[in-house]
Amino acid sequence: MGGAAVLVLLALCGIGAAAVLIERTEQAAPDPSPGTTAPGAEPAGGDLDSRDTDRQPLTAKEVFPGKTLVVTAGEPAYEVLKTHSSGSCAVAATGELGDLLARLGCSQVVRATVRTADRRHLATVGLFNLPDRGTAQQVQGRIRELLDERQGRFRGMAAGDGTEAVSTAAARVGWQVRGHYVAYCLVVRADGEPLPTNDTTARDILYDMLELHLDQSVLQRRTTGGYAGQPTTREGADRHGGEDPPQD
Questions:
Q1: What would you report as the CA-atom Rg of the chain, rounded to the nearest whole angstrom?
Q2: ∠ Cα 23 25 31 (to 5°)
Q3: 3-state DSSP: the chain helix, strand, coil percent, rounded to 5?
Q4: Could you tell me where the beta strands, DSSP code E, fall in 26-120?
Q5: Integer Cα distance of 209 and 67 in angstroms
Q6: What percent of the chain shows pLDDT beyond 70?
Q7: Which of 2, 26, 59 is nearest to 164 (CA)?
Q8: Whole-prediction pTM value?
Q9: In 3D, which of 118, 80, 86 has the Cα closest to residue 102?
Q10: Residue 125 has what DSSP assignment?
């Protein structure tokens, strides 16, 4: 995993860095992602360091294969409320962050909004497809600065009635890099109330989405030509990541 260890959660999960933000931008209408494969097509195995060695574009079916998402065997499943794939990465990021992604050649973003089994938390989670590991790391290196200076944000994606908070409420955000992909996740309370600094559920969701699902499931299976969708286990996982207190 690329990324510097930051604050408390760095000792807990494989998240390169994390911050908290308020997102108030409306979700753009889904648009087709150019060059995507037919639904159900499996990626070829290979090196994730660049699109030259990992040529098959992501698909929503690959990253979020069903209406439920089990990331740990025996644990409650997340409900997948909406998926979205686009060739315009700016639909998932605002301001200078969106501009940076476009400038560095981001070719697609695949994301979903999910809800916890107890319906108390919502999250938007996804992958940005950059040309190579170097450009992905450039994006990673600027994210915290842009968020702290309010020059750009990740966009939460509303998914119908009762999910508006994911695009309006204060959110805890995490991101990390693997190969030429930047993974991100933002978590909110479904009722729109601010997340407490010590909200362990939000931390668990960040870990589940970034480390267990996107890294150990989706991208790891991509390296071996497999297909995402089977649960992994938390046992024996190496945890190191980061988290900041909320900001308005």
A1: 16
A2: 125
A3: 25, 25, 50
A4: 68-69, 78-86, 108-115
A5: 15
A6: 72
A7: 26
A8: 0.76
A9: 86
A10: E
